[in-house]
Amino acid sequence: xxxxxxxxxxNKSTVLYYLSLxxxxxxxxTSKNMAYYPAIYLDIIPVIRYLQEKMHLPLGIxxxxxxxxxxxxxxxxxxxxxxxxxxxxxxxKEDHVFYNSKEFxxxxxxxxxxxxxxxxxxxxxxxxxELYCNEDLLVxxxxxxxxxxxxxxxxxxxxxDKTETLAYEIHELYHKYAKGLDSEEEQELTKAMRxxxxxxxxxxxxxxxQLIYKEENE
Length: 218
What we know:
Layout: H1 2-8, H2 12-21, E1 28-31, E2 34-36, H3 41-53, H4 59-69, H5 76-87, E3 98-99, H6 101-108, H7 112-120, E4 132-133, H8 134-147, H9 153-178, H10 183-216
Antiparallel strand pairs: 1-2, 3-4
């Protein structure tokens, strides 16, 4: 622990706090009162501090980054890329608000079993520490509105399964055109595909629904 605090500039209580949030991998217990803290802490902690101090990201967002990137690949470059590609475009009016399980149940107006059903059906993806963000709340609110019309989780799951298949096909398309690109160009391609395909698919769904409505009323 002394080596960790000395080389990262943070105190022991901060290291333990990071551990409690899942921002660092668990130490290896060598005895009841002794633990070995992996050297990877020296790589991860500076990235956490950079994201906090330079980008002003809260620990809840950083936890999401770690959950998705993994400890071994958690570098400043990878963290910024993932944030700008997948999290930054989803910011809502109240930036970076997080809710624990109890708060989320109250604000979403869903029962706890309904939230668990959405999670078990892979329609809702909270952080590993059971923190819910604005994006999760939007999904919960959308489900609540559809539920009022009798639309079930199973109904939505059938559509979501098609979306998952589409996501894999997009990933394959990415690899097809990412060949030969350097790291920076790959990141730009990822951003472009996420943003532009989201625009195209949103447009097409709306247009197809208009065409179907027109056909039914002719």
